[in-house]
Design a protein that fits this description.
This protein is 50% helix and 13% strand. By secondary structure, the chain is an alpha/beta fold.
Length: 403
C-alpha cells in the first residue's frame, strides 16, 4: 500500500523489534555500554529497565545479533507470571534442553551440566529474561541459584534482566537482598530527545530507501515527539498511521495538522475499545494533544535552531551520527541497501574552523560546493544553501553533545 506509493523497499515503522533498523541514540548507546561492561565482567546480573516501548527488546536483539556463537550460548525468555518450577523449565527450554516429564530437581541438574559443559568447551552461557517485572520472588530466587554455578572457581552463567520501571521496586524487597548484591550493572532506558526523535524517523526511512517522499514539515516532527514522548514504539505506531493517512489522501508532504488529525483518530479508536477512565489508566498510546503544544513546539524549534523540513541531508547526518556512536562501541550498524541510497544534492560541506575555535560569536567560514542541476533557480539555490548550513549546525551540535 503506502510503501509502494512512496517507493519504499520495505515497511519503515514496524512494531516488532528488528535489529536491522537499530538506531543508536545517546540513551541506547549508554544502555549497550552497560550490557557490554557486563559481558566483559563475565558474572552476575545486568539490569536494564525502561518504559513500555522504550527499546529494551531492540537493544537485546541488537546485542544478540553481534555475539560470536563460538564464544557464547545465548537463550532468550519472554516471561509471564512464572513460579519457581516453571521458571526452571523455561530456562531449560530456552537452551534447547529436555524437561518434559521430569521433576524440577532433574531439570535443574540438566541445566547445570549443560552450562558446565559449555564453559569447559570455551562457550559462556548467557540468559536474557525480558518482561522481568512479571517474575515472582521465587522465580527470581531460582535464577539466583543458577548464577551460583562455578566451573574451576569461575561463574559459568550470566543473566540479563530487562523490565519495566516497577521491576526496580520488586528488586528492592528484603527477600531479594542476595540477588541485588549480584547486580553488577544497571541502567534505566529513557526516551529520545526531540532531535533524536527526528533523527530516528530519518534513520528508519533511510533504511527503506526514502528520497524525501514524503517530506515532513518541521513542526510535524516536533508534534510527533510531543505526542509520543520520545518512545520508539509510540513513534512507530504514529508514523505508520501518518504514512497511511498520507497515502489515502494522496499527498507527499506531511504537516502538523495531519499529525494531529491522525493522533485524534487513534484516540477515538482507543475510546471505542476502552471507556475514558480505563483508557487513561491503561496508558493511551499517545499523549493527549494539549493547548500547551503550540508553546512547546515554539520552544523546541528555538532550542533546536532548525526551521527546515526533514530532508535526505538530515537522514545522512543521522545515519553518520549513529555510525560514529557505534564505532565507539565496536558494534556494527545495519547495512543500508546502496542501490536504494543516493547521496543528496549537497555533496560537500567543509567547516574551515572547528566549533572549539568559536569562543566569541562569529561567522563560521564555510566552503560549500553545490553540484545540483545548472539550471537551478536562485531561490532554490538559496534554499539549498540554508539547508546545508542547518545541517552543519545540527551535525556539529550533535557531535558536541555526544562528546
Amino acid at each position: 500500500m503506502y510503501d509502494e506509493f512512496f517507493r519504499f523497499s520495505g515497511i519503515p515503522f514496524r512494531l516488532s523489534p528488528d535489529h536491522r533498523f537499530f538506531y543508536l541514540s545517546s540513551v541506547h548507546k549508554r544502555a549497550i555500554s552497560h550490557l557490554k561492561f557486563g559481558l566483559d565482567q563475565g558474572e552476575g546480573f545486568i539490569l536494564i529497565t525502561g518504559e513500555v516501548g522504550a527499546g529494551k527488546t531492540t537493544i537485546t536483539e541488537h546485542l544478540l545479533a553481534t555475539l560470536d556463537s563460538r564464544k557464547f550460548v545465548a537463550a532468550n525468555i519472554v516471561t509471564t507470571n512464572l513460579d519457581q518450577e516453571n521458571m526452571i523449565r523455561m530456562v531449560a527450554s530456552a537452551f534447547g534442553l529436555p524437561q518434559e516429564g521430569q521433576n524440577k530437581t532433574t531439570v535443574f541438574r540438566t541445566i547445570e551440566r549443560f552450562i558446565a559443559d559449555s564453559y569447559r568447551q570455551g562457550r559462556r552461557c548467557l540468559l536474557f529474561v525480558d518482561e522481568a517485572q512479571n517474575l515472582s520472588i521465587t522465580a527470581l530466587e531460582e535464577l539466583r541459584m543458577l548464577s551460583n554455578l562455578l566451573v574451576n572457581g569461575k561463574p559459568a552463567l550470566q543473566s540479563f534482566l530487562l523490565g519495566q520501571p516497577q521491576f526496580r521496586k520488586t528488586l528492592a524487597r528484603p527477600e531479594l537482598a542476595q540477588l541485588r548484591q549480584r547486580v553488577i550493572a544497571s541502567y534505566h532506558l529513557g526516551p529520545l530527545s526531540p532531535q533524536e526523535t527526528m533523527e530516528y524517523i530519518c534513520h528508519r526511512l533511510q533504511c527503506v530507501g526514502w528520497q524525501q517522499d514524503p517530506s515532513f514539515e518541521h513542526e510535524a516532527l516536533l508534534e510527533i515527539h510531543l505526542l509520543t514522548e520520545g518512545l520508539p514504539r509510540k513513534i512507530n505506531t504514529l508514523c505508520t498511521r501518518i504514512l497511511l493517512y498520507a497515502y489515502l489522501e494522496e499527498t507527499h508532504h506531511i504537516t502538523r495538522d495531519m499529525v494531529l488529525a491522525v493522533a485524534e483518530e487513534l484516540e477515538e479508536e482507543l475510546d471505542q475499545v476502552l471507556d475514558r477512565e480505563a483508557a487513561v489508566s491503561a496508558a493511551a498510546p499517545l499523549s493527549r494533544v494539549s493547548k500547551d503544544h503550540d508553546a512547546e513546539i515554539a520552544r523546541l524549534t528555538k532550542e533546536l535552531q532548525a526551521e527546515v523540513d526533514l530532508t535526505p541531508e538530515m537522514a545522512v547526518a543521522a545515519t553518520q551520527f549513529s555510525n560514529d556512536l557505534a564505532d565507539d562501541l565496536d558494534f556494527p550498524v545495519p547495512h543500508v541497501d546502496e542501490e536504494r541510497h543516493r547521496e543528496p544534492e549537497i555533496v560537500e560541506v567543509t567547516p574551515m574552523s572547528s566549533r572549539s575555535d568559536l569562543d566569541e560569536p562569529q561567522i563560521v567560514d564555510l566552503t560549500i560546493r553545490h553540484v545540483a542541476e545548472p539550471e537551478v533557480s536562485q531561490e532554490d539555490e538559496s534554499k539549498l544553501m540554508r539547508r546545508a548550513l542547518h545541517l552543519v549546525i545540527d551535525y556539529l551540535g550533535g557531535r558536541h553533545k555526544a562528546s
